[in-house]
Amino acid sequence: MPVIHINLDKRSYSIIVGNKILRDLGNLLSDFNLSSKAVIITNPRVGRLYLKPIKESLLNKGFDVSAIIIPDGEKSKNYRQLIEIYRNLISARLDRRSLIIGLGGGVIGDISGFAAATFMRGIPYVQVPTSLLAQVDSSIGGKTAINLGGIKNIIGSFYQPKLVYTDISSLRTLPREELYNGLAEVIKYGVIKDERFFQYLEKNIEKVLELDTLCLEKIVFRCAQIKAEIVEEDEREEGIRAILNYGHTLGHCFETITKFRYRHGQAISLGMIYISEIAQRLGILEKKDAERQKRLLQRGHLPVSLRKSFNPEEILTILEMDKKRRGGRQRFILPRKIGEVIIKEDIPRELIKEALLS
Ligand SMILES: NC(=O)c1ccc[n+]([C@@H]2O[C@H](COP(=O)([O-])OP(=O)(O)OC[C@H]3O[C@@H](n4cnc5c(N)ncnc54)[C@H](O)[C@@H]3O)[C@@H](O)[C@H]2O)c1
Ligand SMILES: [Zn+2]
User: Fold this and answer.
1) 0.85 exceeded by the pTM?
2) Domains (ranges, CATH) in the chain?
3) Least buried of 11, 244, 275, 338, by fewest C-beta within 10 Å?
4) Given ligand 1 and candidates 107, 165, 186, 245, which is best to mutate, with the most ligand atoms within 8 Å of its CB?
């Protein structure tokens, strides 16, 4: 099975990518010095589909397994749900060597990771990501979080899992919208780091959309590998890890201004389009590269122009609020060509405005 090792001293771990591998998870847990208790955290939708094989695979290895099912969706990533999880962990009598398994998309990964990071000051956890976004992005790198007071991921910690266990066959049950959502991040990796991978996507995007097994395995593996390399270099986002936020600075504004009517991937797609417009105006990026990116996003069913016209001043206000929250620093990730980005701190307000109006 294809494996990626992410080297972070004592916090190192593997990312395994395979097809139809859920039933084998139990076999891999013997390396982690665990006690016999394990708790799987999931939601009703994913649980119905994938809880049984995982549970059975752990039972077969002698684990005492229970499940915590939390409601589906971003609205569950809150402290009430977290407290509920803690209560369940206490009832299940977990100890410090017990295991938490997060089975689901990014929401489940983030909240179960945070629960694992904080319960008894940190117990082992394994991520089993089931959405494309979670497989290529949120399950890797140890960012865990919940939302509070309408602010996304404001409470959280860096806490690495013991293992990321990715079964691409779970993508077969993923709603199409969620597939497109994850594709925005997939395309992002090509633009920030790997022109050959971008070319591969240009050649094979239809196959990806048809859920061709080899293609899915290849793209999930390559994205996970790119993310792992970046996280290895900069675990706590003090420098280079920021390039993963390509398309996200403006993307977050589009999410905010539409009150999250754009899905994350759609907002990121637009963020990539408009930051590329800015990069062209700064003379950093050639038009032909911006066009290549646009075509690929379109083929991935992602939006490339804002649905309705917004007042750019409103977007700039959101940007400025965001900047304040970040202690007066705002980093933009600008593409130089397909496969390479640069980090730039301040971009003139007028230039952003012109680009948004283009
Ligand atoms: N920790 C990080 O580094 C990081 C990075 C990016 C995003 N995130 C977080 O991830 C979250 C978004 O993740 P997401 O897009 O996976 O959303 P999600 O977890 O809400 O999943 C999307 C939907 O797909 C369903 N689903 C997931 N897998 C399925 C499957 N195999 N079959 C059928 N349905 C399935 C879910 O139940 C949900 O309804 C956000 O909260 C975001 O903040 C975290
Ligand atoms: Zn993202």
Assistant:
1) yes
2) 3-172 (3.40.50.1970), 176-357 (1.20.1090.10)
3) 11
4) 107
